[in-house]
Amino acid sequence: MKRPTAAMTALVPPELIFSAGWRAQDVNNWIPASNARPRTKLCAWTASWREAILEGDMRPDALIVVAGGDCHNALADGQVAARNVPAAHFFFYPFDGDRGYLKEQLEELDGFLRRKKGGRGEWDGRILPEIAGAKKLGLALDRKRAEGTFDPEKAFKTLISFSDLEGDPFRFRRNLEAMLRKGMAGKMRPPATDAPRIALIGVPPIYRDFHAVCASAGLRVVFDELPYEFLRLGGKTIDMLARSYSSYTFARPVDFRLKFLKRELSRRKVDGIIHYTQFTCHHVLEDRLLREELDMPMLTVQGDLPGATPAQIRLRLEAFGELMGAG
After folding, report:
1. Which residues pair with 24 in a beta bridge?
2. What's residue 236's pLDDT?
3. Which pTM value belongs to this model?
4. Residue ranges of the chain with pLDDT lower than 50?
5. Among 119, 297, 306, 327, which residue carries the largest CB count within 10 Å?
6. Which domains does the chain have, with CATH numbers?
């Protein structure tokens, strides 16, 4: 029997969605590969999926609109998109990381998903071990990329998909196992292992070839901030999910996120930072604070519409590579 699709506007635990008998779908993940040109927008990310849902190009059975996560525009565009979806649920992250409040939010989401399927029932016991196993493999892939033994562009495209496991955790894990076995075979060309080690922080780039452009500029991306959040969070019960996801850095005050970033940048021996920001995104306002607190060379890049990386940004990345001593 085909699972109904629960689309999410920003991160919510896919463990819960799959375990409740649904297929998870992150409405953002198709956008970089598209040529979406929303007619009206603040942010091209949220406007693109909003129009896709309103025009019927995307037809989820339910929409989970997230507030207080990595995207604030999602709440506004999500309310509009929800008008063309059979069922909608609003999920709120606690700014202070209150586990009790987050547990209540997860229980309400679980109840919503089960009611829409016609009853509460039991969790699908196969799901949680499968996703936990996939995330363990994902962490191994993240380490290989950081060590320079896996193509950074291919790794990123896999890691970003952990928000919804491409709708099928079993197939996703099998594909990931095959990818790790294959390793560096094929056309993958990572930068030299002595290239500058770069952290890509902020929201993910809307440009589909951004990591390849970084590599061509001699920059070795060893850390992608938001996809790493998708990897490291998890749990086997609602209590465990609440405890883990209460540390979701993008849902917490920026000082909480900064402490986490400083730890990861030190652990990965990062030489420099690219801060990707999206046009009209509230995270743009964090750039000054990040520059003050993260004491290393930083390039700030602002994107807008999806597609290939624009020539102007390519030139800036090449100049940053030269500044960092990329050979």
Report:
1. 6
2. 86
3. 0.94
4. 185-186, 188
5. 306
6. 5-116 (3.40.50.11890)
